[in-house]
Design goal:
Radius of gyration: 29 Å
CATH topology of the largest domain: MetI-like fold
Largest sheet: 2 strands, antiparallel
Structural class: mainly alpha
Membrane topology: Multi-pass membrane protein
Protein name: Binding-protein-dependent transport systems inner membrane component
Strand content: under 5%
Keywords: Cell membrane, Membrane, Transmembrane, Transmembrane helix, Transport
CATH class of the largest domain: Mainly Alpha
Number of helices: 16
Number of domains: 2
Family: Belongs to the binding-protein-dependent transport system permease family.
CATH superfamily of the largest domain: MetI-like
Strand order of the largest sheet: 1-2
Subcellular location: Cell membrane
Shape: globular
CATH architecture of the largest domain: Orthogonal Bundle
Helix content: over 70%
Length: 322
């Protein structure tokens, strides 16, 4: 009889069995975690975390979730903003899909989306250029970043003066005046150039911040393996810039879809609604014509477009991380 049996203990049949030992350790770990989670200190920590998160959650519900739900509900009504609202069902959406201005605004949004996506690669090139230890580079960085801190209204006024066919700088450069903002074929392109002047520095700062956080040992390891130039950038640097790339592309697309301030200052959607976009069309119908239900239907369509793209980008990012 073993010593354990002489002491009245049950025989240890699982001793030496790794599976049984793992089960015992797992059960002990669960019991310890349960006891720790049930401790007063853990409860106080959870309560403190909930109290800290509560204001942000309340503000998110009040200023994000509720307006989205309210806009969706309002899109089924006819309301002038003052009197009683009338339920019209899908009439606002039916009118929207039969409106020529809606398709013109949607086409301009696509043009904005395609051309404004030039900002991330240009910003990346500028970030690679500015990420050097050269004397005076801080001054150059501040000059490149200056357009981003300027108000959109100011930028719209400056570019309006730049395009002016009578005294604008563009006339001085090319020798004759071109009514860029007065021509329905050039107005949208002229505004997008002004938007790129702002968006490129923003993307540059995102990439520049990520470049400064890259481990230099990884770069040196890549060079020791023979990576140079484009191969080093594509296989070593860009994979570490994936979060910054995701943020730059996503914020650029959102900015292209909700572009408003430059259009309002430079052309007010004209001439003949040729430069209007969905965001300005929504504002125009609500503020000028007091058609808040119809404006809400435009907002819902714009929200769905953004939601589809952001969900697609998040899915790609998660799949690439896995």
């Amino acid at each position: 009889m073993s010593i354990r049996n002489r002491r009245g203990l049950a025989p240890d049949t699982g001793q030496g069995n790794p599976t049984s030992m793992r089960i015992v350790h797992a059960s002990l770990g669960r019991k310890m975690s349960t006891s720790i989670a049930a401790s007063p200190l853990a409860r106080r920590r959870r309560r403190a975390a909930a109290l800290f998160l509560a204001p942000a959650c309340v503000m998110f519900v009040v200023y994000v979730i509720y307006p989205i739900i309210r806009s969706i509900v309002l899109s089924f009504y006819d309301w002038d903003g003052v009197g009683p609202s009338t339920f019209v069902g899908l009439a606002n959406y039916h009118e929207l899909i039969h409106s020529d201005t809606f398709y013109s605004a949607l086409k301009n949004n696509v043009i904005w989306l395609v051309l404004l996506l030039l900002a991330p690669p240009i910003g990346l090139m500028l970030a690679l250029y500015l990420n050097q230890t050269v004397r005076g580079m801080r001054v150059v960085k501040s000059l490149f970043f200056a357009p981003f801190v300027v108000s959109g209204v100011v930028i719209g006024l400056v570019f309006s003066w730049f395009y002016d066919p009578a005294f604008g700088l563009l006339k001085v450069i090319i020798g004759h005046g071109i009514p860029v903002l007065g021509d329905e074929h050039y107005a949208t392109l002229g505004i997008i150039v002004a938007a790129l002047w702002v968006q490129i520095p923003f993307c540059m700062i995102l990439f520049l911040t990520s470049l400064t956080s890259i481990n230099p040992e990884v770069i040196e390891a890549g060079r020791l393996e023979g990576a140079r130039g484009w191969n080093l950038l594509w296989h070593v640097v860009l994979p570490q810039l994936r979060p910054a790339t995701f943020m730059a592309i996503t914020l650029t697309v959102i900015g292209a879809l909700r572009s408003f301030d430059l259009i309002s200052v430079m052309t007010a959607g004209g001439p003949f609604d040729s430069s209007t976009v969905l965001a300005y069309y929504m504002y125009d119908q609500a503020i000028k014509y007091f058609r808040f239900g119809y404006s809400a239907s435009i907002a819902v369509v714009l929200f769905l477009i953004m939601l589809v793209f952001i969900a697609y980008q998040l899915r790609r990012l998660l799949r690439s991380d896995r």
